[in-house]
Amino acid sequence: MASPLSPAERLARLRLARSENVGPVTFRDLLGHFGNAVAALDALPELASRGGAKRRIEIATAADAEAEFAKTEKSGGRLLVLGDEEFPFRLAAVDPPPPVISVAGDVALLARKSIAIVGSRNASAAGRRIAATMAEALAAEGFAIVSGLARGIDTAAHRASLATGTVAVLAGGLDIVYPEENRDLQTTIASQGALVTEMPPGTSPQARHFPRRNRLISGLSLAVVVVEAALRSGSLITARFALEQGRDVFAVPGSPLDPRAQGANRLIKEGAPLVENAADVIAALAEPPGRRFGEPEPPSWAPRAAPGIPDDEDARARILSALGPTPTPLDDIVRQSGASVPLVRSVLLELELAGRLHRDPGDRVSLLPEA
What we know:
The protein is an alpha/beta fold. 43% of the residues lie in helices and 13% in strands. The protein folds into three domains: 7-79, no CATH class; 105-286, 3-Layer(aba) Sandwich (Rossmann fold), CATH 3.40.50.450; 313-367, Winged helix-like DNA-binding domain superfamily/Winged helix DNA-binding domain (Arc Repressor Mutant, subunit A, Orthogonal Bundle).
């Protein structure tokens, strides 16, 4: 088991996570590169400069981090950084893991075996009934129910599992209610279940926050059940994250005449098991794992071996020439540049800290135009 984080390292990890241009991938790579957040913070200015930054990178101060710890506690929550003993082990197992989460309510609930139930906000009465019935039956079998606190399917799943354990993942801060119509439900979940978010206190949900919320929904769960989803919906984003994380994805079929069922029906066409009730989900989970996600052992998360700061300017030039405005897979950059994977990751890390790199789904990256 890993040693508990020191107070200085916990503070440094929060500062690192809240510093400019540091997302989950960069956070992971910085810890892997330097071994701890204290050293990574010291190196940020030099790395950003090497990546071509035109100004000094903004680093979160110790006062900022201490204030966030205090605000989270004032909101009735606890802030957990990657490496904390109570950090949910399923989230720590995803690649990359979220650097920081805040939890209000029962933190132990996040360690229970969990199923996510997601679907349309504009759900039909039948869809809401299916979600509620499935959530109640799964909860009776010992599963915690995870969803996103949206109206429609999410709300039905949460309400049906309040008494047995429900987890709501938020797109804003713990102290922000969204949607307003679920104010009472959010308060009840905070006292009877658990609220989880990556966002700092005071953050209002914005469009760009919802994919991060969806990634946490799937990351906390053994499987995701989609009940009614349009072809362009957050539920399908959650399903995609689940597949990338190696989780199971199940779908409830619907009428081909109902646009709210087209997304779930497409998942079935693409190979997602068709489920109609909780018994179907439980039976599918009991099958031999094959390529399916298996319950991970609680990880002893540790940094990867540090590759060292690259000094090969020829290799750096080849890596830069392999990048462009079109999202390019990391493997292609390695092949085109002839550089090692650690060297490529180091250069990409510097470019991202300099604000010159955009990370796209599927471990692809694109170069942003210089300002």
